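RECORD TYPE: inverse folding
INPUT: structure tokens
STRUCTURE:
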């Protein structure tokens, strides 16, 4: 097999006028220009082959040959061109039958990456799928643009599997309900599933409701897109819900201003958003008012923003009642702003969780200033904050950090919480039975152990001593134990003890080794020492996850 190429000596004509569709197709994927005359001769050869040799109707064959540029370029690479492109192509096609579904699907408006997964596995010739051709021709004769039919096939292949005469009856059934042929021809491109079963009653009801609100078919067509999937049942539920909410009189204005609520894949999100707000106690009239003030944003993004705020409030440990008050009072504000990450906000605002909760409750409007892409400034130091700073500084000096400004600055970054809270957490470890000097050394080695609540520290010490049976002095050698989750500690020790009972683990392995190893190392050094180890490990993980 040779390949088509352009000799370097040739000087192909360059057109200064705006390129036509044909001239745009004269370029191969490698950027090499295929002369227009070559492309036209290749199209003619393909047309003759499809119509004269393969007996495909002339109109269909012509559409395939003229509207499958990718396929033609691929074909030209396989053909050894000897003087006459048309004859060379015809000779090649005589002995090398093509997969006719490729130029067919491409001529219907699909790209190779779209139609390749749709190619029949055991068929090469269009005549072998008579139902496909029959239903394709029904759509063409009904007025559907040929280059849009590919979208119908991609979204609802069942349309092309109807028996002879069935598809036309379905189209006529919609006409009998008062829909024009041109409107149906457009709608089935956007929503081909209306042709897969019986008449889509919800689709008809949506049209009736929109017509009743003053929206004609032209307006509906204008706001539909081939890129979307339309669930008419869901759209009907949204319209019905809006009426039941009591905004019937304003519904036309709402849809006119925000057609996305219905048509941009947002219908399901609208219902989810309403359910979410109702759960927090927002009254129906307030929800109705919110939609009437809805911002220029997709409902899916609006709902995601509110959920993002909800998760943020949870992460800073705000009380549920307070979260509910903010969600119910400021839904538009929350839905219009894409909040930064919690960790970023705590850092940028230079504030702890308790103070941040209090600040938000007192200044909820400030939330709108913390969105993605905005510069967030630290909160002003409060009187309470000044006192906390003094207590923190005293705590750090007592720990032995000295009065070196750089050391103190580093300490302020590492330790989270108020000064009084840090001292309280420190005292919790001392009161468990350790010497104050030993605890000071522990904190200097692993400062993060104080970034936990007093209750959590007490719980972890109790588990270490009373549940796992280790002496309290183990904390002096391995203070980082307090930084690991109780689930990790219990899981690792349960696995280690099982392996030790099976004689497959060193009996004197240090607690720090068992806990601090990464999962990968723990698996290779311990779990995989026994044939049943991996299964026992998975079973224990499942058990501890359930317990959690």
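DESIGNED SEQUENCE:
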């Amino acid at each position: 097999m040779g390949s088509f190429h352009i000799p370097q000596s040739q000087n192909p004509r360059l057109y200064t006028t705006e390129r036509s569709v044909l001239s745009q197709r004269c370029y191969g994927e490698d950027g090499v220009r295929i002369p227009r005359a070559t492309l036209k001769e290749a199209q003619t050869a393909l047309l003759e082959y499809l119509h004269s040799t393969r007996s495909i109707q002339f109109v269909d064959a012509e559409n395939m040959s003229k509207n499958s540029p990718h396929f033609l370029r691929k074909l030209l690479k396989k053909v050894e061109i000897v003087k006459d492109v048309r004859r060379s192509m015809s000779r090649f096609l005589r002995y090398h039958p093509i997969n006719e579904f490729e130029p067919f699907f491409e001529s219907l408006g699909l790209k190779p990456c779209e139609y390749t997964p749709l190619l029949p596995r055991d068929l090469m010739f269009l005549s072998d799928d008579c139902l496909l051709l029959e239903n394709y021709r029904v759509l063409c004769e009904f007025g559907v643009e040929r280059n849009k039919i590919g979208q119908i096939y991609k979204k609802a292949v069942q349309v092309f599997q109807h028996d002879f005469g069935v598809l036309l009856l379905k189209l006529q059934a919609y006409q009998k309900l008062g829909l024009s042929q041109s409107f149906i021809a457009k709608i089935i491109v956007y929503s081909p599933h209306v042709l897969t079963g019986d008449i889509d009653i919800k689709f008809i009801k949506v049209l009736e409701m929109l017509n009743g609100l003053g929206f004609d078919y032209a307006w509906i067509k204008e706001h539909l897109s081939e890129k979307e999937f339309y669930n008419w049942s869901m759209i009907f539920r949204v319209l019905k819900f809006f009426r039941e909410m009591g905004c019937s009189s304003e519904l036309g204005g709402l849809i006119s201003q925000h057609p996305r609520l219905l048509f941009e894949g947002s219908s399901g999100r609208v219902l989810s958003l309403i359910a979410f707000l109702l759960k927090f106690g927002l009254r129906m009239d307030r929800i109705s008012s919110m939609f009437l003030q809805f911002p220029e944003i997709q409902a899916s993004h609006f709902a995601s923003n509110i959920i993002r705020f909800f998760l943020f409030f949870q992460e800073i440990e705000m009380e549920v009642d307070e979260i509910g008050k903010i969600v119910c009072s400021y839904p538009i504000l929350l839905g219009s702003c894409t909040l930064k990450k919690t960790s970023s906000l705590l850092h940028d605002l230079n504030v702890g969780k308790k103070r941040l909760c209090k600040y938000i409750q007192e200044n909820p409007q400030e939330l709108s200033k913390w969105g993605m892409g905005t510069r967030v400034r630290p909160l002003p130091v409060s009187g309470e904050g000044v006192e906390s700073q003094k207590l923190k500084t005293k705590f750090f000096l007592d720990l032995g950090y000295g009065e070196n400004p750089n050391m103190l600055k580093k300490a302020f970054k590492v330790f989270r919480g108020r000064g009084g809270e840090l001292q309280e957490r420190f005292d919790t470890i001392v009161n468990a039975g350790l010497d104050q000097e030993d605890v000071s050394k522990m904190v200097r080695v692993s400062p993060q152990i104080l970034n936990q609540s007093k209750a959590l520290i007490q719980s972890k010490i109790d588990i270490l001593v009373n549940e796992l049976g280790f002496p309290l002095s183990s904390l002096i050698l391995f203070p980082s134990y307090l930084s690991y989750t109780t689930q990790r500690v219990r899981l690792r020790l349960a696995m280690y003890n099982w392996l030790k009972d099976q004689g497959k683990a060193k009996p004197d392995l240090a607690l720090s080794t068992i806990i601090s190893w990464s999962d990968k190392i723990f698996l290779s050094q311990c779990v995989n020492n026994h044939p049943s180890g991996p299964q026992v490990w998975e079973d224990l993980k499942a058990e501890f996850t359930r317990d959690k």
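NOTES: Residues 26 and 39 are 7 Å apart (CA to CA).
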